[in-house]
């Protein structure tokens, strides 16, 4: 009888402990982080709300960013993303300017940027696929992350695919805008002088250069759009964006 009584006491204690533990877990699950690192009580964001809000924010950022990049002068007239003369080939530019080939240098820079603009039109579907595969843990990490966290998620998950997609598109675009028509005479002119100067010839991979710069510029624009949604309530154009990103605003 004594053993039964003791067993009953142990079972009661374990039951009470389990209930307290479950209540603690449930309370923790409904708490949300505040901007000062503390916690605030419910209403907390649900997993579905976080994922929905972030997917919408990224979709908006992609459409706006890619849209700006792919229009005429989207790269050329934006100092933040404009493709400059390849740094490793500056000696070619300097020699061309010395020989009075200013017009060809300018045309070359213009056609590089036209190729980047043209290639950027292929980016959106690749970004959208990455968004569809976003996990709940990805979503909360992005929401609580620093500025640019959503763009970094895209950068980590799409760069390889973008390079694969952009490379043939850039090659096609450079052919369409006749980039090599302006590049070849410039490099040929310079490379002829290396016989006398002893300097190495320039053989820049233009397709790789334009591809890398175009992708970097694209992410720059997407990050700008993400920043607007994170910091500017006016940019939160739907209820879900207001709720999810409003949770990050200082209280």
Structure characterization notes:
The chain has about 250 residues and is an all-alpha fold. It has one domain (about 45-245). The chain is about 70% helix and about 0% strand. The chain is built from 10 helices and 2 strands. It has a two-stranded antiparallel ribbon with strand order 1-2. A hairpin with a 5-residue loop joins strand 1 and strand 2. Helix 2 (about 45-70) packs antiparallel against helix 5 (about 125-130) and helix 3 (about 90-100) crosses helix 8. The longest helix is centred in the first third of the chain and has 28 residues, at about 1-30. It starts with a helix and ends in a 5-residue tail after the last helix. Mean pLDDT is about 80; it is low at about 1-40.
Helix percentage: over 70%
Mean pLDDT reading: 80
- Give, in order, the helices and strands: HEEHHHHHHHHH
Q: Can you list the strand order of the major beta sheet?
A: 1-2
Number of domains: 1
Rough shape?
Answer: elongated
Strand pairing plus helix content: what structural class? mainly alpha
* CA radius of gyration: 28 Å
């Amino acid at each position: 009888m004594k053993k039964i009584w003791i067993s009953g006491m142990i079972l009661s204690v374990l039951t009470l402990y389990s209930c307290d533990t479950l209540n603690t877990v449930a309370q923790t699950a409904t708490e949300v982080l505040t901007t000062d690192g503390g916690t605030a009580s419910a209403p907390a964001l649900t997993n579905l709300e976080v994922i929905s809000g972030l997917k919408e924010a990224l979709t908006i950022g992609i459409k706006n960013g890619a849209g700006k990049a792919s229009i005429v002068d989207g790269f050329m007239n934006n100092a933040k993303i404009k493709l400059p003369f390849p740094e490793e080939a500056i000696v070619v530019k300097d020699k061309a300017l010395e020989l009075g080939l200013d017009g060809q240098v300018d045309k070359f820079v213009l056609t590089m940027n036209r190729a980047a603009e043209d290639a950027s039109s292929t980016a959106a579907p690749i970004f959208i696929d990455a968004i569809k595969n976003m996990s709940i843990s990805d979503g909360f990490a992005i929401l609580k992350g620093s500025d640019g966290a959503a763009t970094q998620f895209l950068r980590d998950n799409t760069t390889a695919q973008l390079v694969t997609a952009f490379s043939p598109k850039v090659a096609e675009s450079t052919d369409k805008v006749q980039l090599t028509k302006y590049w070849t005479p410039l490099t040929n002119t310079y490379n002829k002088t290396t016989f006398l100067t002893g300097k190495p010839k320039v053989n820049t991979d233009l397709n790789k250069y334009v591809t890398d710069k175009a992708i970097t510029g694209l992410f720059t624009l997407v990050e700008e759009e993400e920043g607007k949604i994170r910091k500017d309530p006016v940019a939160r154009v739907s209820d879900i964006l207001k709720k999810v990103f409003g949770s990050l605003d200082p209280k």
